[in-house]
Specification:
10 strands, rod-shaped, 221 residues, four-stranded mixed β-sheet, 2 domains
Length: 221
């Protein structure tokens, strides 16, 4: 027959052993559930505990060459290189980055000389071209070719002396003389339009300024 002490001991065992089992069970399942974590040991191999979550990386060193750690994930680095072969045309690898380099200088054709169409001047009461006027016309024809000018407008002028009707006819003859010489130099007649303005634009008041009035102007059209 059990003594009171033995009965108390048996009762204590019946109560304490199940409690220990429950506590052991609770202890085995009380850690964070993946992918949550408290430390790296809670994560899979090659993962790291970052802000309570198992992540691929915590810093760049956890990623391979050419990758960076961004918000827990390893991402490719744009423009990463180890040799020049990994870069494009006119690029080279510097500090593991492809950088642009200046291309080799290439020979270029010299720019065409700049030119402008200049007026052709005449002597008093003359519509024919002298040597100076012919040279001026030839220079304008060369300029047209250099600049690719396809068509021009010729406008004849006179000084204010003489009647309006006479000066209008004289200015027209001057423009036609220039046109005829241009055609002889190879310019198509259809590329030239001519007209006379007479003394309408004259501003001269003496012989020196009258000479500036006696001219044929060239203009692109």
């Amino acid at each position: 027959m059990e003594t009171p002490h033995e009965r108390n001991l048996h009762m204590t065992k019946r109560i304490f052993v199940p409690v220990l089992a429950v506590l052991a069970l609770l202890a085995s399942g009380c850690g964070p559930k993946y992918p949550k974590c408290d430390k790296d040991e809670n994560c899979h191999a090659g993962e790291y505990c970052v802000d309570g979550q198992c992540q691929e990386c915590r810093e760049d060193a956890h990623c391979g060459p050419g990758k960076t750690c961004n918000a827990g994930r390893c991402e490719e680095v744009t423009g990463y290189c180890q040799t020049d072969d990994a870069c494009g045309v006119n690029e080279r690898c510097e500090r593991n980055r492809c950088v642009q380099v200046a291309s080799e200088a290439t020979e270029t054709e010299p720019a065409a000389p700049s030119c402008s169409l200049s007026p052709v001047y005449f002597d008093f009461d003359v519509a024919e071209l002298d040597s100076s006027a012919r040279n001026a016309v030839a220079a304008n024809v060369r300029c047209m070719k250099d600049r690719g000018i396809a068509t021009v407008q010729l406008t004849g002028h006179t000084d204010p002396r003489g009647t309006e009707e006479y000066n209008l006819a004289l200015s027209d003859r001057r423009a036609l003389s220039v046109k005829k010489y241009m055609v002889s130099l190879g310019v198509s007649e259809s590329a030239i339009r001519s007209t006379g303005m007479g003394e309408e634009m004259a501003v001269g008041t003496d012989e020196a300024s009258y000479r500036q009035d006696r001219r044929v102007d060239f203009a692109e059209r």
